[in-house]
Known about the structure:
The protein has 570 residues and is of the alpha+beta class. The protein has a domain at 1-7 and 45-265 and 407-451. It has 19 helices and 23 strands. The radius of gyration is 22 Å and the shape is globular.
Amino acid sequence: MRRILLFLLALSSFPAFPLDAAQPESASGFRPQAEVVGRRFMAVTANRHATAAAAEILELGGSAIDAAIAAQWVLNVVEPQSSGIGGGGFLLFWDAKRRQVLAYDGRETAPRAASADFARGPDGALLNFDQVVATGKSVGTPGLVAMLEMVHEMHGKLRWERLFRPAIRLAENGFPVSPRLHGLLAEDKFLMVDPAAKALYYPTGKPLSAGDWLVNAELGATLRLIAANGSLALHRGLLADEIVGAVRARGGVLDAEDLQAYRPLRRTPVCGSFHAWRVCGMPPPSSGGIAVAQIMALMERVGGSSLAPESADGVHLFAESGRLAFADRGRYVADPDFVAVPTDQLLASPYLDQRAHLIARTRSMGLAVPGEFAQQQIHADGQSIEIPATTHMSIVDTEGNAVALTSSIESGFGSRIMVRGFLLNNQLTDFSFLAERDGKPVANRLQPRKRPMSSMSPTIVLDKKQRLHAVLGSPGGPRIINYTARTAWALLGAGLSPAQAVALPHIGNRNGATELEQGTSAEGYAADLRQRDHAINIVPMPSGLHVIQRRGSDWVGAADPRREGLAMGH
């Protein structure tokens, strides 16, 4: 009973967005949610249950790491399509005492028996994404549990077991299916292939409706097992055997040794400057830190950072900056344990100055060409199929420590292979389907034990006094980079509030057509951009931005109005 009361207290004691309150609409057509302010702590996640779990842990004196872990397991329960035990993630941690940003890599790895030709059929023909995603061929070795265990050992305050209780409560007692989960279940064409997933999410042969009560007792039991035994429960023993059996039954090559050999890694964060700010992100194998830093630096150099994010010139310059960042991303970024990624050269001031001169205010450059570096191994430009799923959370604790965690099982519902109540990832589809092009290897080709390139962009911003200023990130596949960079521009360059920044209409360019968010005022840029020689795609762009920003001695939190996220502070 005490546990339930604590949970209800967490839901009721903290300010939440008054979704029915009268709020002025932004020019995007999205209504910015009411600002949430906290003096002691702030948590913003993709679901109210996860935010409440984080707030519960923070109120108990837990660290930002403790709160993030509790929220992550709740998200596994209520947003099974996005992230969880069967996937991986990247985490940035601001250590307030030591005044430093730390980066942790929980990205999945390719099985030791996997081949660079994993996306080819028996006849040697290249398969398409749909032919690979819902098979064992797409499953990498999960890394999220081991990574969160690592950061908890280093930065946690509460017991590991305590952090699982909110998720276990929800899994075993149940929760109402959200409208978003219902919609994704209704749209998915692969999940019903898995008998366990079909029984759980399509009990009558039709997808669960919004408001239906969902109990996942099997996931609750799995969470209890990991709470008691840590990551060993996933990487060795009966659960590991079941994971291997399920993957191999669907054509994969994952084996027990792959699970036993997995290790999370601590890496050096990538930091770039934007006016007086220091913008830090994840290094490779994520491309997010480099690309966001490049876009911000280029915008500053061409005068775009001082423009309004909804000005025609600002939109054009942002799109051109994105072209250049994505050109470099496609050529150079991959797992640095397999490929020499020229991170320092890509962020060097002389190089960025040179790249900025390629941007004209009146005309698009069209397809951007990657930069060239002396003595750099020659690679072909790669293309991976990264699906816009994933989740992100931003958390600041009572001691001023912060977490930006982006985690994923890749595609919505991952590989559609369910084991003991959770879904396995399809992260191997983030490798290039082509291992080489024109006789040159692709940097992001699949190799045994390699980590696929990602666009996940958890971001921490420091001010000129090296104090924590903002925590942000988003889901959204390769569009994550543009979502995050545009929001940082709005916060740091244009001075928008977190709520205003996350409600902006989306625009972006991934070195192709310039994308404008469907159903928003972004569509109004099309005529001007076409006059500047942009090709235009008007598409849905469902980000899930979660932002925390310092305002004096307070923390201000905001969740993207496009999804079901929530901010809570105290």
